[in-house]
Amino acid sequence: MIATGASAMIPPIPGFTDVPHLTNNNFFNLTALPPRLIVIGGGPIGMELTQAMQRLGTQVTVLSRSPRILSKEDRAAADTVQKSMAADGVIFHFNVQFVGIECTSPGNNTACTATSLPFLSYKVSTEIDGAKQVFEADGVLNGTGRVPNVSNLGLDVAGVAYDTMRGVAVNEFYQTANPNIYACGDVTSAYKFTHSADFSARLAIRNMFFGHKFTEKDLVIPWCTFVDPEVAHVGLYEDELKDRGIAHDTFVRPLEHVDRYICEGENDRGFVKIHVAKESDHIYGATIVSRNAGDMISEITTCMQHGVGLSQLAGTIHPYPTHQEAVRQCAAQYNARFKTPAVKQCVQWILEGRAPGVEEGTSGERVHKRARTST
């Protein structure tokens, strides 16, 4: 079983490989707080650590090649997070072209590291909108993502196919090109999360030792970016549904309409968004933006994993007042869409004890319009 995980990807920026810098691997070895920090990249890891450092007292500047942070997430969700981080004091620069990175140590002290005092001095040369800019800091965090650990494993000798970016190639049952070798987790999956690696390992081991045929397709994998507010997602995004030409409806419940969030004063910082099939309540995906979105997404994940539709979710009683009511209220909009003028008229007729096309006779008896004659 190959389960070597992944490590920080070093982008092709001149000088980056030559300078000590922070990654998600050594970040927690910091023994002091750098006064200024440059974060390269606007992905989940970079944004989580950016907000943490800013709130601890470091002035953080984010430099990103992309036009926005969290580029794979729902646009409204990313915008909400960016607004929150900007309010914390984070400085953002987008569409950045990197020219080079260099650093110097105090007194040319060769013992200096990226994680302890005295801090190194960094200069990051860039070009933004055609103008050259140089940013200086006491630390640089590489937040550009991770790549599979496939080097120096002897995979070629073992007959295992792999790619340095996509990792070890496996079939749907986690089996490599060598039928006696399996792989699981970050080294082979596009879902580089601890929880997904855990479950893929469980399936791969069962396939490997007991001859089962479990696949990653059997799993509905949620994820969460732990910023404030959190962004949690499961299934397909709305942009993916549109790109694939899948007819769908989208329901959104802003937290400003949910009593628990109103009471806690956080009603302007998020929403629940759920996508369903156009002609049914089958759930395609969902995004939640809330300070506890990672906890809230599990209910929708359970529904998707076990084929529970949105109407059933809407009909499930939730305690009041709770954060989770936001999910039920969003789901309830699926049923509310059937309250058209025609449906309301039919309900009115039912309440009045009559049906469409039926009139009351002069003596109270029912007379069908089509049965009336002009004798």
Explain what you see.
There is one protein chain. This protein has helices at 44-56, 75-88, 155-158, 194-210, 238-243, 259-264, 293-305, 310-314, 325-336, 341-351; strands spanning 6-8, 36-40, 59-63, 91-93, 96-104, 121-128, 131-137, 140-142, 146-148, 162-163, 167-168, 222-225, 230-235, 248-254, 271-277, 283-290, 358-360, 366-368. With 375 residues, it is an alpha+beta fold. The strands form six sheets. Strands 12-13-16-15-14 form a five-stranded antiparallel sheet, with helices on both faces. A hairpin with a 2-residue loop joins strand 6 (121-128) and strand 7 (131-137). The model is unreliable at 360-375 (pLDDT under 50).
Descriptive keywords:
single chain; alpha+beta; disordered C terminus; five-stranded antiparallel sheet; four-stranded parallel sheet; 375 residues; globular
